[in-house]
Amino acid sequence: MKIYSKLAATTLPLLLASTITSAQTVDVKISNLTQGMFFTPLLISAHDNSQHLFESGTEATAELAAMAEGGDISGLVTATEALGAVNAEDPAGGLLAPSTSTMTNDFDTGSNGLLSITAMLLPTNDAFVGLDSWAIPSEAGTYTIFLNAYDAGTEANDELVNGGGAVGVLGIPANPGANGGENGTGVTTTETNQNVHIHRGNIGDADENGGISDVDSRIHRWLNPVAKVVVTVK
Amino acid sequence: MHIKKYLSIGLSVCSLVTLSACSDNDSSDSVKNVTTPDIMTQSYELTVSNLTSNQPLSPLAISIHGASYSAWSIGEESSLGLEKLAESGDATDFLMEATNSGAYTTAVGAGLIMPGQTETLEVVTSSSEDLKLTLASMPINTNDAFIGTKGLDLAGLSIDDEMTVLLPIYDAGTEANSELSGTIPGPADGGEGYNALRDDVNVVSRHPGVVTNEDGYPDSILDSSHRFDSPTVKLTLKRTQ
C-alpha cells in the first residue's frame, strides 16, 4: 500500500509535466489556393480531444451551421472556449480573397494539443474549408497541411445568391467577387447527406440572368485541396 | 508539316527502342557500364505518367536549380514564360527564364505524353548540396492549365533512392477559362495557343476544373472526356548517380 501511494505520488507529477510540455507556440500561414472562392473570417482553434470544430460523417452542430451557412464564427468561439480552447479569430481581418494568404504569428496553444481550422467558402450555401484535430507536433519545425472543402449538410445547395446567411434560411449570403449571375431557378431544394461530408462542388452555369444557378461554372468551381496551411512549431 | 510529324514519331519510336533495350539489362548494370563516374555530376531518372482521361501533356519542361529560383507562386503573376507554356505548351521561354535565374541544367521531354502513357528520361546536373527540381507541362485541352512541381527538394536523395509524388493542376490565370472554340490548342479544338492578352485573374492558383458541354455549358468545345481531378500526374524520381 505504501509503495503504491509512493508510486502514484511520483508518477502523477510526471504525467502532468508531460501534458504541460505539449504546449506550443506556433505560426500559422493559411493560403487560399482557389481561383475564384473567398473564405469568410477564419477560425484557428487549439483544443483538446474533448471537442471538434467539425467532424466529417456526423451531424453539424448549430455553431458549425452558423459558420458554414453565414460565416459567423462567434458561436464556435464561445463553445470551444467554454471547454478550454484557445482561438485565433479572423486573422485576415475579413474575407481571405482567392489565391491570397494570411499569417498568424506566435499563436500560444496553451495546453491544447490539437489544431482545427474553419471558414466558409463564398459563394456557396454551406461549404467550408476545414482542418479537424491535427496533432500539433512537439518537435520544432515547419509542417505543411492541405485542406479540403466540406459540406456542412445543413442546407440544400440551391446556389441562389439572395442574402440568406442565417441558419435555416435557404440561399447564399453573398458573392464577394460580384462575378456571377442572378435570377437563377435553383439547382436543388434537397440535401441528401445531412452529415458533414466532402463537398461535391458548385454546379453553376454560364447564364448571367436565369439558368439554374447564380454562380458561374467557369469561375466558382474548385478541386481539392482548397487551402494550404503551413504550421511552424517554435 | 508532314515531315515534322514523321520526325517526332520517329523520335518517339527511337526512344521506345532505347527504353526496351535498356530494360534488357539490369539498370544497375548499365550504371556500372558507364565510364568512370564523374563525381562532379548527379543523375536523376524521371518517370512521368499522365493520369488524366483525355488531356495530352505538352513536352515536359524540367530544370534543376538552387533555392533562389521559384518558377511560380500561388497568388503571384505568371511569368511570360509560364504564360506561354500554360497557353500553348511551348516550354522554350519558361526554360530560358530558369537558365537566366541560374538553373544548373534544363531539359525538355521527347514529345507529348498521351493519357495513360509514361515517359522516362534522365537528367544530369552538376553536383551541389542544394538541388531542387522544377517540372511543368500543359494539359493541352485547356485554356491555360499547367501541371507541375516547383522547387522539389532533391538534397535528401542518395544514389538509388527513389521517391514518388502526385502532381496537382494549376491555372496560370492569364487566359479566361472560356473553353470556347478557337481558344484551346489541343486536339479537342485545334485553336489558338499563346495570346499576349491577359484577360483572367492574372495570378497563379489551383485549377478549378473544366466545365465542358456535357455539364451545362453548351458553348464549351470540351466534352466530358476532358474533365480531370487533381492529381493529374505521377512523378517518380530516382537518383542514379
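The interface with chain B takes residues 31, 33-36, 98-101, 201, 203-206, 212, 217-226, 228 of chain A (CB under 8 Å).
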